[in-house]
Amino acid sequence: MGHSQAQKADNRERILALAAAHIRAHGIDSLSVAPLMDAAGLTHGGFYGHFASRDALIAAAIVRALDDGAAGAAHASGGNLGEIARSYLSRRHRDSPATGCAIAAIGSETARASDVSRAAMAAQIETFIAGVRPFVADDGQAALAVSAMVGALTLARIYPDRARADSLLKAVRTAIAALDTQGSGEPGTTA
């Protein structure tokens, strides 16, 4: 790969990283090409050398955000469902949407996005469910646990009352731990 091709690949990665963090923190609709390219230190005109359209950028940014979130989840997950719930339903995760789970951050917006974006999100949801499946009785409970974790994180991010948000996270952690057929027990009281 020549220098210009390597630089182009680096620039594309920088654009995608910024776009993925932006949509997780601020939502898909707020992503604007000109400020994004400025933040990347590139010209607005150079955008089309990397992406055919804003929609193509959004689809790629959703995939990147999902991949980043999945990598963080894999690193943070423990050996049982209680540990997974403790990590996922934590204050740190609640307060860090730009680096946290993209499913919780942009799931509802992705439901209205392109087929490509929805397919990428659906694949990540299925991966999350599969990761929980070994700890519960059946696929239904795995889907329930994932739905409860994503929903609780989303709701906890909405509450301006942090004590109420912490209480919600703790209640769902406890309920998720009760589903664990491996006997992980209560995932702790630290929010």
Would you kindly provide a brief summary of this structure?
Helix content is 69%, strand content 0%. It has 191 residues and is mainly α.
Which structural traits does this protein have?
disordered C terminus, single chain, 9 helices
Write structural notes for this entry:
The chain has 191 residues and is mostly helical. Helices cover 69% and strands 0% of the residues. The protein is built from 9 helices and no strands. The protein has helices spanning 3-26, 33-39, 54-76, 81-88, 91-94, 102-110, 115-132, 139-158, 162-179. α3 packs parallel to α7 (115-132), α4 runs antiparallel to α9 and α7 (115-132) packs across α8. The protein is elongated and about 55 Å long.
